[in-house]
Amino acid sequence: MKFYFQIIILSALVGLFGCAHPLSEELRKDLDSTLTFERLLEAPEEFIGKRVMLGGVIVETRALPQGTEIEVVQKEIDFSGYPEMGDKTGGRFIFFNKGFLEPEIYSKGRSITGVGKIRGTQIGKVGERPYEFPVIEAEDLKLLDDVARNPYFNPPYWDPWYRPGIYAPYWPYYQ
């Protein structure tokens, strides 16, 4: 009986730490929850110096003499700190890190989440089109493992025994 109790406690602890946020609580406590990426794109000068948490998928990493720029396609961040899957995006932004980050590690297609202060904007190009990138001076960056998410636990919650229309039009009254 004691052995089973220890297994249950160990499993609960592993499950609890498995749900930990990738960024520290200290950095996340000063975030402005009303600041959305859409508002940042509309008036970036208004938010200079504010701390923000953003995430997405890396497009390009550029090593410069002053530091490293990581161009990111923005994705909404879910409750666990991971960028959401799918094609929905608000645009692009740049994480700027004063140190050197290896471009082969911070490579195209990897997911990233970071916290930093808004530094302003930078004019660049997406293809041939001019684009104004918000620049975030990174305080903490986390590369996230490319874990293939199980579709059974993510929307639309597939059920192998679900048959569409089997109860229609009588559901929920069909017993």
What does the radius of gyration come to? 21 Å
CATH architecture: Beta Barrel
Beta content comes to 25-35%
- Largest sheet strand order: 1-2-3-5-4
Low-pLDDT ranges: none
Shape: elongated
CATH class category name? Mainly Beta
Termini gap:
40 Å
Q: What's the helical proportion of residues?
A: 10-25%
Average pLDDT level: 78
**CATH topology-level name:** OB fold (Dihydrolipoamide Acetyltransferase, E2P)
Largest sheet: 5 strands, mixed, barrel
**By CATH's scheme, which homologous superfamily applies?**
Nucleic acid-binding proteins
Structural class: alpha+beta
- Count helical runs: 3
Domain tally: 1
Number of strands: 5
The SSE order reads: HHHEEEEE
What are the salient characteristics of this protein?
175 residues, alpha+beta, OB fold (Dihydrolipoamide Acetyltransferase, E2P), five-stranded mixed β-barrel, 3 helices, 5 strands, 15% helix
Would you mind describing this structure in some detail?
By secondary structure, this protein is of the alpha+beta class. It has a single domain, classed as OB fold (Dihydrolipoamide Acetyltransferase, E2P) (Beta Barrel), CATH 2.40.50.140. Helices cover 15% and strands 34% of the residues. It has 3 helices and 5 strands, in the order H-H-H-E-E-E-E-E. The chain has helices spanning 2-18, 25-28, 37-42, and strands at residues 51-63, 68-75, 92-97, 111-126, 129-144. A 5-stranded mixed beta barrel has the order 1-2-3-5-4. A hairpin with a 4-residue loop joins strand 1 and strand 2 (68-75).
